[in-house]
Specification:
Length: about 120
């Protein structure tokens, strides 16, 4: 059975999973050598999610203005993308609350390959 995380460590993990603002503690945790493995894993997930959202959002924002219909569609897609990012971080916080491991789908496959 997996040992329970300390309240301090768990609160730091929640802080890393905050949408948008969690990038700062996540980067600090990844830079610190004394950070635990669980906290580093959570920080990696938070940074990957943030960078995916930021690059996607910036790419959609840099498109030229072709017409009002296309502009409305892009704005709707950007709102959907941002909502998905927020819901994903809330879901990861829920998994942390339940004590389940936090990982993204492409990270799971990499971990399974490392075990082989």
């Amino acid at each position: 059975m997996k040992p329970e995380l300390s309240p301090t460590k768990k609160s730091r993990m929640y802080l890393c999973l905050l949408p948008v603002f969690g990038i700062i503690p996540s980067l600090l945790n990844l830079r610190n050598d004394r950070t635990s493995k669980e906290l580093k894993d959570t920080s990696q997930v938070a940074v990957l999610l943030f960078l995916t959202w930021l690059i996607s959002y910036a790419t959609l924002g840099s498109t030229g203005q072709s017409g009002e219909g296309i502009q409305v569609s892009l704005e709707l897609f950007k709102v959907t993308l941002s909502s998905t990012y927020f819901v994903t971080t809330i879901y990861l916080m829920y998994r942390l609350y339940k004590g389940k491991p936090l990982s993204l789908p492409w990270q799971k496959s990499r971990k399974h390959r490392d075990l082989d």
